[in-house]
Amino acid sequence: MRKISVFLALSIIVCGTCLSLLYGQEEMTVKGLITRRTAETLMVRTADTTQIVTLTDSTKVQSPKGLGLRKQQMSWTSLIPGLKVTVKGISTAEGKFEAKTITFSKADLQTASMIQAGLTPTEERVAANEVETASNKEAISVNEA
Questions:
Q1: Is the separation of the CB atoms in 54 and 96 below 8 Å?
Q2: CA 29, 35, 37 angle in degrees (round to 5)?
Q3: Are 28 and 101 in contact (CB under 8 A)?
Q4: Distance (Å, rounded) from C-alpha 74 to C-alpha 42?
Q5: 39 backbone dihedrals φ, ψ, rounded to 5°
Q6: Which residue segments constitute the domains of the chain, with CATH numbers given?
Q7: I want to staple 112 with a disulfide (CB 3.0 to 4.6 A). Which of 62, 70, 73, 82 is the partner?
Q8: pLDDT bracket for residue 70 (50, 70, 90)
Q9: What is the band of 60 on the pLDDT scale with cuts at 50, 70, 90?
């Protein structure tokens, strides 16, 4: 009986590995900072490179609760630039990295929120300067004519 259960367990492991190789998916973990966010993608800068992460409907966004054994489900809106995250997902044959779970601490979320609060006025000033620069270029071209 014991030999049968060992054989069955090994068969399941081998089949799972074969299916994983067959579909070209490799499970990976990426740790880094979110540098840019669009609706369904994140750019995560790691120590070595920048990884583009695709969010799917099944992606779970979590934050450890208490001792870290339980996780609190968080909203996708929590994924802001400057946030330090751990992304677990699969690398597909097309070269995409699809996130299954994204985990971050509440302290890191608070720090990223403070960074964003400081950057918002700067971004507004940059946008205003761009408008002024464009109007100055038009005035210069009119003066030259």
A1: yes
A2: 90
A3: no
A4: 16
A5: -55, -50
A6: 26-118 (2.40.50.140)
A7: 82
A8: confident
A9: very high
